[in-house]
Amino acid sequence: MPSIITELPGPRSREIIETARTYEPRSMGDQVPVVWDHAQGCVIWDVDGNEFLDWSSGVLVASVGHCHPYYVEQVKSQCDRVFNCYDFVNEPRAELAKKLVEITPPHLEKAFLVTTGSDATEAAIRMARRAHDGYEVVGFDGAFHGRTLGAAAAGGMGSTRRGYGPLTPGFLQAPFPYVYRAPICKGKSEDECAQACLEYLDWVVEHQSEGRLCAVITEPYQGGAGGIVPPRAWMEGLQEWCRERDLIFILDEVQSSFGRTGEMFFMDHWGLEPDLVCLGKGLGSGVPCSAVVGTSEIMDALPPGSMSSTNGGNPISCTAALAAIEIIERERLVENAARMGELFERRFLEMQAEVPQLGQVRVTGLMGGLEFVKDPETKEPAPELARQTIWEAFQRGLICIAPIGLYNNVVRVAPPLVITEEQANESLDIFEEALHAAVAETG
Q1: Which residues, other chains included, contact 173 with Cβ-Cβ below 8 Å and sequence gap of 6+?
Q2: What is the largest CA-CA distance in the chain?
Q3: Which H or E run contains 324?
Q4: How far apart are CA 9 and CA 344, in angstroms?
Q5: Which CATH number fits domain 11-64+332-442: 3.40.50.150, 3.90.1150.10, 3.20.20.140, 3.30.70.100?
Q6: What are the angstrom distances between the C-alpha of 390 and each of 120, 125, 127, 397?
Q7: Which residues contact 187 (CB under 8 A, 6 or more apart)?
Q8: Where are the beta strands (DSSP E) in 142-208?
Q9: In the chain, domain spans
Q10: Helix (H), strand (E) at residue 357
Q11: φ and ψ at 405, to 5 degrees?
């Protein structure tokens, strides 16, 4: 449990942070001033000996917890053998590709290994364009698919697009059914919002497309925009919309996969059958690893040598991913995420009843987004309250990621999937105390 033994940040942390500010660009995330020293499970120790509970998972990465003993053992063992062999076949890569095909829906038959989430979305877009006569890709407002130029062009977040000049051409943007806030959804029920957004797709195509549509890419829930889960009717309708037009349906599950939402993959909740699926973050559970899993028809459209990666599919990353998947399955972490998610949702709804500035609670498994507003009627965003809540939690021994969302007014909740009920309740108690303190501080 948390143990704070110095003022925060501590003296050693302040020294290291000053070095970082001097020699690193300020483009890095504006996180609370904690310098991680080591971590285990759901617990973090900083360089001053302070002990924290973790609601970040290193941004949804450490699904099996920090430094799981079996995971560490497997990675160490591979380090004694070989680190990198470019795209020569290695046994862990072949075994990981096989495993990914086995645990995803049966129509997905091949897996391509890369390194980051951006790599995976870029690769999926390239695959779709190579396998289809068209080249235009439909993305959605609020989407985050990565920070490389193609991924940013497919996405719909201003923070990844502004200030970089013209982005990669060939992308269309359509409304995402953000029922709580999107103008197209104002005054509408979930089903009405879903229908309005689906109908607007045809308008987008009519007025933005050159007539060379190729694919549609979406997250099953929008992570960076604030953990926004669309209505099921919209997602199912979008898949059908793609089928009717012979378009490739790309699902970006970089943030939502490997148990995070209480199913191994989000598509399992609703029985979706995308043509390409982007995976990452929790796949490597600490060592960078990502993948695209897809149909043979699309994957085999690329001839030998047309797509490879210097570090993608390297033996260490693949060994780490295989270990992480084994732990998730053996320790039933998908089920734990679903069970703990119910606890988190219940507690947050209780907090919302006392604090009206907690405008909306969005929890699916151990993926949560808490949207703060100044007034629940006007829904005016309250980014200062979100930031102050994170600061108050930090002072009490709970680490959260800096505010997310289109207005930086959402607190993301994403602890490692190994969190116990005791740790969950302790962290929720801390957060509740921090929330009330932040409300009092910001007025």
Answers
A1: 138, 139, 140, 141, 156, 204, 208
A2: 63
A3: helix 315-330
A4: 28
A5: 3.90.1150.10
A6: 31, 36, 40, 11
A7: none
A8: 171-174
A9: 11-64+332-442, 71-330
A10: none
A11: 100, 165
DSSP type of residue 137: E
Q: Which tokens go with 357?
A: 């500035």
Q: Which residue has the tokens 């929790």?
A: 282
Question: What is the residue whose two structure tokens read 């780490």?
Answer: 320
- Dihedral sign computed on CA atoms, order 219, 222, 223, 228: negative
> From CA 106, how far away is CA 101, in angstroms rounded?
7
Q: Beta-carbon neighbour count of residue 300 at 10 Å?
A: 12
Does the domain spanning 71-330 belong to CATH 3.40.640.10? yes
Tokens at 373, concatenated: 């507003």
Strands 51-54 and 398-399: parallel
pLDDT digits (tens), the chain, 443 positions: 799 999 999 999 999 999 999 999 988 878 999 999 999 999 999 999 999 999 999 999 999 999 999 999 999 999 999 999 999 999 999 999 999 999 999 999 999 999 999 999 999 999 999 999 999 999 999 999 999 999 999 999 888 888 888 889 999 999 999 999 999 999 999 999 999 999 999 999 999 999 999 999 999 999 999 999 999 999 999 999 999 999 999 999 999 999 999 999 999 999 999 999 999 999 999 999 999 999 999 999 999 999 999 999 999 999 999 999 999 999 999 999 999 999 999 999 999 999 999 999 999 999 999 999 999 999 999 999 999 999 999 999 999 999 999 999 999 999 999 999 999 999 999 999 999 999 999 97
